Amino acid sequence: xxxxSVIIPTRNRIKSLSRALKSIYNQTLLPKEIIIIDxxxxxxxxxxxxxxxxxxxxxxxxxxxxxxxxxxxxIDKSSNDYILLCxxxxxxxxxxxxxxxxxxxxxxxxxxxxxxxxxxxxxxWVSSSNVPKTIKLLYAYIFGLPLYCNIVDKPPKGFINxxxxxxYKANHNHITKAGWPVMTQMESPxxxxxxxxxxAAMFKSVSLKNNKYxxxxxxxxxxxNYDLAIRINSKNGIxxxxxxxxxxxxxxSNRFKKSEAYYYRGLALFYILTKNSIFNWKNKLYFxxxxxxxxxxxxxxxxxxxxxxxxxxxxxxxxxxxxxxSDKM
Length: 329
Fold this sequence. Notes:
Strand content: 15-25%
Order of helices and strands: EHEEHEEHEEHEHEEEEHHEHHH
Distance between the termini: 39 Å
CATH architecture of the largest domain: Alpha-Beta Complex
Number of helices: 10
Number of strands: 13
CATH superfamily of the largest domain: Spore Coat Polysaccharide Biosynthesis Protein SpsA, Chain A
Oligomer: single chain
Mean pLDDT: 91
Largest sheet: 10 strands, mixed
Radius of gyration: 20 Å
Structural class: alpha/beta
């Protein structure tokens, strides 16, 4: 029988973890096992967690802090045909596991996810940002910057807008020459994308066991999912179904400031461009070009913390400092 293992790395987030577990316990199709890899300051014990249904085997493994290494421990310990990676601040629809698992019967892809929602600045759960104005759309296109909005149903207005939307639609969901992800087409009932937030994605176990997380990434894991998705399915992509959803609560603990996260995300991308064979020196040049575009944007919008982080990032790349803080791990 094709059973499911759920792998959850966690650190000092007992309330958030409990919410995630309750949503798993409430599934219409229960997983066979849940493996929690804990790196909390005060070790997690089973009696601190919500009561687990007897149909599920739950295992807590203690580890040093490193989200990539924690996930790898769980992957090694898993013993089922499918693995559901679950961040500890995720909350699933009741039909999430059964809906995603059923899609493997008709899909040849190795990674399938439900639609992930996050709260916007109006406190509403959304699956993407609003389509930016034409000038911002043009700026992103020129500098190869990341874009995360749904243009499928956007009526084009004006020559430039029509040109840009036609270009983005032709390229579908893709990676820019600078290496940044672009996801602009989120059709129902499903769509494919090269990169997606795979903290609620299900994998064929064999593909994940053969392509585990790179422990070189900093212990909070910025860039790790991008790297993994490229290595497992760079050509075919990830299937995302809109028929079931997961809420990403973005628990604030254990997170960098946004400007710091920008710096580490940039280092992570340059590291990926350097080590992955699908990229070459041209991609690195385009990446530097994208950073120059960001620098100008941060300067004119007076986001000085981001401007300083960008300058530090460019300096680290040019002077070949450690590509990522955890290179020495």
